Amino acid sequence: MIESGLCDRAGRRVTLRPVDDGNWRAVADVAPRDDQRAWVAALAARYLLLTTRSDVWTSLAVYADETVAGHVMWGVDDDGSRWIGGMVIDAAQQDRGVGRAAVRTLAGWLGGQDGGGHPVRLSYHPDNAQAARLYTSLGFVPTGAMEDDELVVELIAPAQGPPRA
After folding, report:
1. DSSP category for residue 79
2. In this prediction, what percent of the chain has a pLDDT beyond 90?
């Protein structure tokens, strides 16, 4: 489990946990709002499948207390940069600070691996204004690169120390 002590606005502790036999169905059923489907998969099941078919990505379940609230995945690029991808917060769990806490927790953990100092990157579609506001508010800055049709942003020094694993 990866935890940073962060909570959502309702006071629920947000943690990141491995996807396992006990939670994979709940994670696979995570679905964004209908208006977000242009930017993320309709169900987190697509990202779960990707992580089982790839050596690059690892899936994590996003929990708010003991409720599966979302999915996020991470990977390490050839240049050593850490990547956050495939984040979906269930429609019923949105606008509560779960996504913000999940990104901060994972970025802190990824940036602190192997002694720290690793840039943490992610990408989002330029038309996804909600994602742009979230990531900018967390300190991510554009790199000038594009990944497919998405803007690549980077967090040089995560705002918190490495969370407890």
Report:
1. T
2. 67
